[in-house]
Each structure stands twice: as C-alpha cells, then as structure tokens.
Write a structure and sequence with these properties.
137 residues; 8 strands; 35% strand; 2 domains; alpha+beta; 3 helices; three-stranded antiparallel beta sheet
C-alpha cells in the first residue's frame, strides 16, 4: 500500500536555517520509500528506507548544507532493539553513556510513545551531534 506524506526539511547553511518542502512516498508492502525535494533549483530524488535516504542526503548536501532535524540532533537516538521506518527517539532529559542506557526508554510502550519522533522533526532544543556526547545512530 502506497502512502504519500509531505514534510518540512530544515537545512542549515552559514548559520541560517532554511525550510524546504519534501514529498515522501511510503510503500508498506515493499518497505521502499521514495524521497523528492527541490533544492537550489535542482530535483533530488532518492529511494530506500528513510534512514538510508537521510544518510545519502547528508552526503549529497555536505558541501553546502547540514540537515537540521532529530536525525542530526544529539538527543535523537535509534532504538537499540529495533525501530520503525522514519522513527527516532528523543532523550533530551538524560545523557546516555552507551546503547544499553536506551533500553528503558524504548521498551516501555508509554515511554516509546512519548519520545517517538520522525527523522524530519526538530524542536527548539536541537543540538548537533558531537564526538564528546554519546548518540546511538
């Protein structure tokens, strides 16, 4: 079953964050997603799961833009035991030191629901990933 959704993707360049429109097509049968956006007059179309699309997009944009979203936030962590496509978990209320620190926030249904975000989401507490802060990606 094919499902289309529109998202805003925030990209940072020269200390300015710009908003771009993105169309995603999620195919629940094949689990292959399609990403489409226009940036600087160019069409960018990528296929894969959402996580692989974000990884590829990061490579494509690295010379000019940085993705500004839960995907690139130091508080955004993947679930160590598995997550759904386009899902990441916010742990801005504690500092994980290793993967196992994330188990309690992702194994409880209510905690998962409270912390679940899409890779596109971003909040005012955004902080970029850094080498001195553990983030499970």
């Amino acid at each position: 079953m094919l499902k289309k959704e529109n998202f805003s993707l925030y990209l940072k360049a020269l200390d300015q964050v710009k908003e771009f429109d993105v169309e995603m097509q999620f195919d629940e049968d094949t689990e292959i997603d399609k990403f489409l956006m226009f940036i600087d007059g160019k069409r960018v179309e990528l296929i894969g799961n959402t996580e692989s699309i974000f990884m590829e997009l990061s490579k494509i944009l690295k010379d000019k833009y940085e993705i500004h979203s839960c995907y690139t936030c130091k508080y955004g962590n993947f679930c160590p035991t598995g997550d759904m496509d386009n899902e990441i978990f916010c742990v801005n209320d504690f500092e994980p030191k290793c993967k196992s620190d994330l188990y309690f926030v992702t194994e409880d249904r209510e905690e998962r629901k409270k912390r679940s975000r899409t890779l596109f989401d971003v909040c005012e507490g955004f902080q970029p990933c850094s080498d001195d802060y553990y983030t499970y990606k």
